[in-house]
């Protein structure tokens, strides 16, 4: 597994300070993610956690002030029974002593990004995220902070960019995206 920096579009760079993936989506890592996300197989988590623990990530991910999971819409999380980003990263964050805050909410359900092109992905998530009640109440907690935004997969960066824009508008000093996997370099 080789962590790698992801090239970002000009739009993404306006909201994200950097974006990395722990590994590539193809092969075993993609299978692990699909088994967890779509089949609910939590037995794959020790393998995912081992990959994260072994990853040599840049300093900004290790010294962040806060971490935020990309939120699912409440209906999707209820259907699935979990937020995969939380299951993937919770143990790693605990080991790194980075506090997690539920600062974002997904205001509306979106169609799954899988299979959509880049423009369709951006349109799909535009305006889908806002500060949660905790985020609105904790504006001082966001202001000037370094935040790691976590998701399972980064393809075009549309979801992470949309989330990061909300955090930046609320005053975050920097927002770094970290995905378990990406299908691009």
UniProtKB/TrEMBL annotation:
<protein>
    <submittedName>
        <fullName>ComF family protein</fullName>
    </submittedName>
</protein>
<dbReference type="InterPro" id="IPR000836">
    <property type="entry name" value="PRTase_dom"/>
</dbReference>
<comment type="similarity">
    <text>Belongs to the ComF/GntX family.</text>
</comment>
<dbReference type="Pfam" id="PF00156">
    <property type="entry name" value="Pribosyltran"/>
</dbReference>
<dbReference type="InterPro" id="IPR029057">
    <property type="entry name" value="PRTase-like"/>
</dbReference>
<feature type="domain" description="Phosphoribosyltransferase">
    <location>
        <begin position="112"/>
        <end position="182"/>
    </location>
</feature>
<dbReference type="InterPro" id="IPR051910">
    <property type="entry name" value="ComF/GntX_DNA_util-trans"/>
</dbReference>
């Amino acid at each position: 597994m080789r962590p790698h920096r992801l090239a970002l579009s000009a739009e993404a760079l306006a909201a994200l300070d950097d974006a990395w993936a722990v590994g590539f989506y193809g092969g075993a890592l993609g299978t692990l993610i699909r088994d967890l996300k779509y089949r609910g197989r939590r037995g794959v988590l020790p393998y995912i956690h081992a990959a994260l623990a072994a990853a040599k990530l840049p300093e900004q991910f290790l010294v962040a002030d806060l971490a935020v999971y990309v939120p699912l819409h409440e209906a999707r999380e209820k259907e699935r029974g979990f937020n995969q980003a939380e299951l993937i990263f919770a143990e790693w964050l605990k080991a790194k002593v980075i506090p997690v805050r539920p600062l974002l909410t997904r205001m509306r359900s979106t169609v799954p990004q899988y299979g959509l092109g880049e423009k369709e992905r951006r349109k799909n998530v535009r305006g889908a995220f806002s500060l949660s009640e905790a985020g609105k109440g904790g504006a001082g907690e966001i202001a000037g902070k370094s935040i790691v935004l976590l998701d399972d997969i980064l393809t075009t960066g549309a979801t992470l960019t949309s989330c990061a824009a909300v955090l930046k508008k609320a005053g975050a000093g920097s927002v770094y995206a970290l995905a378990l996997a990406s299908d691009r370099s």
